[in-house]
Amino acid sequence: MRRPGPIGAVALALGLIVAACGGGEAPVTTGSTATGAPSDDGAAGETMTPGRDDGGEIPDLDDAAGRAVAVATAACGAADPAEGSGIAIGPDRVLTAAHVVASGGTIELTAGGAAVAATLLAYDPARDLALVRPVDPLDHIPPRPVSGSLAVDDTGTIVGASRSGDLPATVELVTIIEMDDVRSTTRSQRRGYRVDAATGPGDSGSGLYDEAGRLVGLVFAVSSADDDRTWVTAASEIEAFLVDPSVRGAFACDPERSRIARTGEDR
Fold first, then answer.
1. pLDDT in tens, 77-88
2. In 76-182, at which residue ranges do the beta strands (DSSP E only) sit?
3. Residue 180's domain is classified under what CATH number?
4. How many structural domains compose the chain?
5. What phi and psi, each to the nearest 5 degrees, are found at residue 141?
6. What is the separation of C-alpha 67 from the centre of its chain, rounded to a whole number of angstroms?
7. Are 176 and 38 in contact (CB under 8 A)?
8. Residue with more model confidence, 30 or 258
9. Measured between alpha carbons, how far is 1 from 130 in angstroms, rounded to an integer?
10. How many other C-beta atoms are found inside a 10 Å radius of the C-beta of residue 39?
């Protein structure tokens, strides 16, 4: 996981331990070199409306647990291997945090005890989101929409593939999070939450579900100041990522830079 800057957080992908820069509380991720954090003052925050049902069937948390996927990467160049979680949003689509796969020479998914190789479909270092495709489709995983939002004091559950298990979460802050992009010094903003939940290594890429079972966010970091605080990217950012053509392409390990890069990308 990653920790936001002045506020701070820790990335929850096993492999690369990342220290946040800046004082105070910051989101911290494990699996990428990340700095930066959201501001805790009211001026930087943004209140989102409560989630709404789109009229379709609302899955429960049993469905969420069945979609939790372990994500592991082999090292690219001099990078360390990393492990995190992912969410199967369809039989051939797994959503995870970008820092989990940013330095991966290869990607392996484990679902239902079975391991399968995967390729990177989309990669957004600004939103810290990635989409991977298993070489062999995952069985019995129908498409799953991402929708809804949370307000302060709303409760939900974090579900991932790590040993943390299902974790209760309460929203403490709805805000605009500012952090360095994954493996970059460029800074970007995204909508998200700070929640009261004690996540740990391997939880980056876990899903945050509301009380109705809707997928409303993706875990990317824990707080540098409080182990019981976790940072989550909002569903609105995930929805935008999934339809953004600019983040899609062919990607491969660049051993000289020890990270993945779009095929044909300028050095």
1. 999 999 999 999
2. 82-90, 93-96, 104-111, 114-124, 129-134, 155-159, 167-180
3. 2.40.10.120
4. 1
5. -115, 95
6. 15
7. yes
8. 258
9. 14
10. 17
Angstrom distances, CA of residue 179 to CA of 69, 142, 249: 26, 33, 24
Residue 208 one-letter amino acid: L
* Distance, CA of 212 to CA of 145 (rounded, Å): 13
Residue 1: inside a domain, yes or no?
A: no
Alpha-carbon dihedral sign for residues 239, 163, 133, 82: positive
pLDDT digits (tens, 9 = 90+) for 178-219: 988 998 889 999 999 999 999 988 999 999 999 988 999 999
59 closest CA partner among 148, 161, 189: 148
96: domain range? 27-245
Pairing of β 114-124 and β 104-111 = antiparallel
Give the residue from 158, 126, 106, 123 showing the smallest Cα distance to 34: 126
- Residue 221, CB half-sphere, CA atoms under 13 Å: how many? 44
Q: How far apart, in whole angstroms, are the C-alpha atoms of residue 63 and residue 180?
A: 33
Following DSSP, what letter does each residue of 214-262 receive, concatenated? -EEEEEEEEESS-TTEEEEEEHHHHHHHHT-GGGBS-EEEETTTTEEEE
